[in-house]
Predict the structure.
Amino acid sequence: MAYEVKQPILGFENVQRVILDRHDGISFCLRNSDENEYMKLFLIAANTPLEELNLPVGMQTILNLSKNSKYSIYFPVVKAKNIYDSMINVGAPFIFNEDTGVVAQCVLSDDQHTITELFGEVE
């Protein structure tokens, strides 16, 4: 599904429409719908209630979100060679309003963690 970008994506301010591709149910790829302008971001699905994000009212308005809206939340991932050193930016989630087909990245803080910090060592 293609989504209209309602607020510029950090580093990709000219992107106006994006497509969200599912990889395995928890990881996704967000790409520019305009194939002439390359953009690809890796995202991880968040099972976070919208209320816990404390979205600013302005962002709720931009996304036309209400308590009855169908939404999804994803955190951007910066992949490292060692996957466990990859960074998850939990402070700048992508919020999708599935009802209206719009998306925006909302910068809430500069909170970032490696996968190991969030989930522990894997043996």
Notes: The CA atoms of residues 85 and 111 lie 15 Å apart. The longest helix spans residues 57-62.
